[in-house]
Amino acid sequence: TTLESSPRLMTHYATLVARTSFHIFIVEQSLDGRKFNRGKLLNAGFDMARDDFDVFIFHDVDLLPGVRGEPKHVQTCDDLGELYAHVPRLGPMHIARVWGRYNENPHYFGGIVAFTRQQFVKINGFPNNFWGWGGEDNELYSRVVRKKLTVQAPIGCVLSFVLDYWLGYGSLLTDLFGCRGTIRDLEELELEEKLAVLRASKWKCTVKRELLKEHHRTWKTNGLKSLYYEYVDAESLNDCCTKITVHLGPNGHWSDARSSLERSEIPTEVSSSPQPQTDRSQASEANGSVDQGHGEEKRAPQDASSSDETHEEALAIQ
Length: 318
What we know:
Layout: H1 6-16, E1 23-29, H2 38-49, E2 55-59, E3 63-65, H3 80-85, E4 93-94, E5 112-116, H4 117-122, H5 136-146, H6 155-167, E6 183-185, H7 191-200, H8 208-213, H9 215-218, E7 230-238, E8 241-247, E9 282-283, E10 290-291, E11 311-317
Parallel strand pairs: 1-8
Antiparallel strand pairs: 1-11, 2-5, 2-11, 3-6, 4-5, 7-8, 9-10
């Protein structure tokens, strides 16, 4: 995903939550020659902003919420802005459930999810070791279930799913309940098309199943508690949006050997114990900048095998 979609995301998000105080952090992975690591990027974004905000919306940067005045096929229902401004006290809110693509899978928990600070810390955040597309959202759901948190979903989507399951015509009611046409995927690929592209490329997480099997042994330590990254740079895009670049580095886990963008997947250095957590950058809501208030700035090392592509995830915070 490139930054090209970021201005559109900022415009749409600002329209949706104009009634609340918010800041968007776009967290970018450095040119490190490794696969995209969505979970670790979002953990880093949370870590840098955790002391200044109460609600955190973890948002794919290529999912664009619709706003009034857009073409009908991406026009939002009146409730979508309420979902973005909602404080999910009863349990994490799966905002992406309004998207029809994954409505038939009750265990899907990706795309756009909202947590309070306490909820996200309780589950130890995302896993840090899913290099490549897929798996980290499955693990996130397992953590939510293990800590007995109740996933909240937009009421229209719940009604549609129940009606479809029991009566067989829930899909006819999705527009009525506002469950379709509210989020646009800027990749403009159907699910099967996207999976085909991933299978033919080097972007997929090739050890997803093996990592998910480790959940019961590793979830308490693999996440916020073992998070290591290096702050590289921050750029204020406007008063309500900051782009932050971080160097993720290895996790000291066997999956590091599968993180390379090269098809040969050359093993990376694996340390014998988790590296210490980096000093947190303090996020400033007032000026949209990141202040390095913990000593000397850490710079990511230049990797001779670096790719020309960067990877981003948006962290929209109230």
